[in-house]
Amino acid sequence: MAENTTEVLTGTGVLAVAIGFLVFATGATSFSVGGSSYPLSASFRSAEGVKVGTDVRMAGVKVGTVTGLTLNPQTFRADATFTMQQDIEIPDDSAISISSEGLLGGNFVEVIPGGSPFNLDPGGEIEDTQSSVSLITLLMKFVAGNGDE
Fold first, then answer.
1. Is there a contact between 149 and 96 (Cβ–Cβ < 8 Å)?
2. Contact in structure between 42 and 2 (CB atoms under 8 Å)
3. Would you kindly state where each structural domain of the chain is located, as residue ranges?
4. What percent of the chain has pLDDT over 70?
5. Whole-angstrom Cα distance, residue 77 to residue 72?
6. Tens digits of residue pLDDT in 16-42
7. Which positions ≥6 away from 133 have C-beta within 8 Å?
8. CA nearest neighbour of 110 among 124, 125, 99, 122
9. Are 60 and 11 contacting, i.e. CB atoms less than 8 angstroms apart?
10. Side-chain half-sphere CA neighbours of 97 within 13 A
11. φ and ψ at residue 20, rounded to 5 degrees
């Protein structure tokens, strides 16, 4: 009888910890059920470090998510599609760039709002894009020097 009680208590504890991790993970990743959003797109020369699920941020706040990333065979550019929160309207002259959270952090897509009085319609495209910068390429240039000294 004592063995069964111990097993039941251990199993209950493990289940409680698993539920705790699930609650923490959904809160930490800003997972939400429902909510309305609208699609936008952008074309990057390089989308290194971006994948489906990458955060779209404005002023450091998550406002959307990358939903698709494909190579355009005509332009050889990375076409990204993403969703934005319905209550955030983006001016049609806004810019978008791929930014890094730091040396060891991941990348995210940053929307830099413009000043136009007109907003992008759902399904619109942000045309002013800045691609990701490869940290390895920058380090190689720094190590090699440019020879102009």
1. no
2. no
3. 1-31, 37-140
4. 82
5. 5
6. 787 877 767 655 554 444 569 999 999
7. 100
8. 99
9. no
10. 11
11. -60, -45
